[in-house]
Amino acid sequence: MDGPSREDEEDSTLTSIPLTDDTDHSSKIFSPRSQSLLPKMMNADMDVDAENQVELEEKTRLINQVLELQHTLEDLSARVDAVKEENLKLKSENQVLGQYIENLMSASSVFQTTDTKSKRK
Q1: Residue 100 CA to its chain's centroid (Å)
Q2: Any idea what DSSP says for residue 85?
Q3: Which residues contact 111 (CB under 8 A, 6 or more apart)?
Q4: Beta carbons of 105 and 111 less than 8 angstroms apart
Q5: Number of C-beta neighbours around residue 65 at 10 A
Q6: How confident is the prediction along the chain (121 residues), in pLDDT tens digits per residue?
Q7: Cα dihedral: 36, 41, 42, 44 (round 10)
């Protein structure tokens, strides 16, 4: 009995069972049915991404529009304030001019009211 006998070889072959499973189960994970779902899931993900992108673009557009409207409102508000100041200034100038014209008219004999009845009598 110089070497292992044939029975010993068979016994050792039968008893050497690997504890880890080295087989490839990836084909079992994606059965033909689940493989047909994969493109649908990927399309759903792309649809969600496209929807998110569209939603993000819409939000960005709305934010830009709001900012533009805020700037327009600020400009209009500043213009209203400037017009109010100009209006007050013009009212004040009109009062001064009105008073000046009244003083000139009262000082001039041309604008004096004539009492014709008292002169005729």
Answers
A1: 57
A2: H
A3: 105
A4: yes
A5: 10
A6: 455 555 555 554 455 555 555 555 554 444 455 455 556 656 666 777 888 999 999 999 999 999 999 999 999 999 999 999 999 999 999 999 999 999 998 888 887 766 555 555 4
A7: 130
Asked if 81 and 88 count as a contact pair (C-beta separation under 8 A), the reply is: no
CB under 8 Å to 91, separation ≥6 — which residues? none
Q: Which residues contact 105 (CB under 8 A, 6 or more apart)?
A: 111
pTM, 2 dp: 0.45
- Token pair recorded at residue 27: 């084909």
